[in-house]
Amino acid sequence: MLVRHFSRVGTEWEIAPALRQMVTASELNLAGPLPRLGPFDVVYLRNVLIYFDPPTKREVLRKVRQVMRPDGWLFLGAAETTLGVDDSWERVPCGRGSAYRPTKGK
User: Fold this and answer.
1) For residue 42, which of 69, 6, 81, 78 has the smallest C-alpha distance?
2) pLDDT exceeds cutoff 90 at 53
3) Cα 79 from Cα 77, distance rounded (Å)
4) How far apart are CA 37 and CA 64, in angstroms?
5) Which one, of 4, 6, 46, 9, lies nearest residue 25 by Cα?
6) First and final CA of the chain: distance in angstroms?
7) Pick from 43, 106, 37: which is nearest to 77 by CA?
8) Could you write out the three-class secondary structure of 55-91?
9) Cross-strand pairs, 6
């Protein structure tokens, strides 16, 4: 899988052009209204939620859940969690870390 989707560049790996064309990255103000986006398969909020108070964290997680596919994945930083903030996410162990998926029916 590695050589199928990545190319060796010196001692590093680079995403293959065909895969790169399928990815879009952008910046958003999560505390404000989100533009009409999605649905997303994957959302990375690494080291973002730690800067917000609990009500704002809940609101950000609610907005993110609305723009994700039902089988999508949310990745947070190691010091972040949805536990105790928003129970509409399921924690899924992934290697040494965790990812989160929207729970069904919430």
Assistant:
1) 69
2) yes
3) 5
4) 10
5) 46
6) 34
7) 43
8) HHHHHHHHHHHHCEEEEEEEEECCCCCCCCCCCCEEE
9) 15
